[in-house]
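Hey, resending since the last one bounced:
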Amino acid sequence: MTEDSIFLRMEQSLEQNGVLPRDFILEKKEKKEGEIQYAPGALEGICTHHLASGGNANDFCQLIKGCLDMDPKEALVQFEAGIFGEFQIATVRKELLQEIYTNRQEYDAGKLKRLAATFVACGKKVTSVKLGLSLLNLFDLSDNESAKRMLKVLAHSEEFTDYVIWSAANWEEQEAQDFYFE
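The structure tokens again:
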């Protein structure tokens, strides 16, 4: 993990009552002229509830396959530098996960899980963390305490809530209930 990753900054900023300070910023972004600004988590709601399909999941799957052949931290650096292009995870998440699951024999599960965990733990950009969280949805994390700790911290931001809830779906019922109402 890097000291300026979103996860670590969130973990260090949580107040005693488990709330992030009002002035906490996940990622400083330069506002581009004419760009629509969404409230945290709004794009996910729009994409999952109002749109039939998002972007091109096949292209995104090829990107993931290429990243699996790299060191996960190097893949993250390149992803965050924009070398692979600009992506809105919310627009391809459902199709991406379905495509990977359908063709799972083409993916090394261990490498995919390491890539996902690296993006979540070390990501400095919201898009990187969302991609990592999306990929973690493919795995049963019910026995992985370090992954659950990361998910619990990230759930404190509306930007990641939807992604975290999906990962917690296969936890023991009581643990999931405690988490949802924590």
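The two ends are 25 Å apart (CA to CA).

Sorry for the duplicate.
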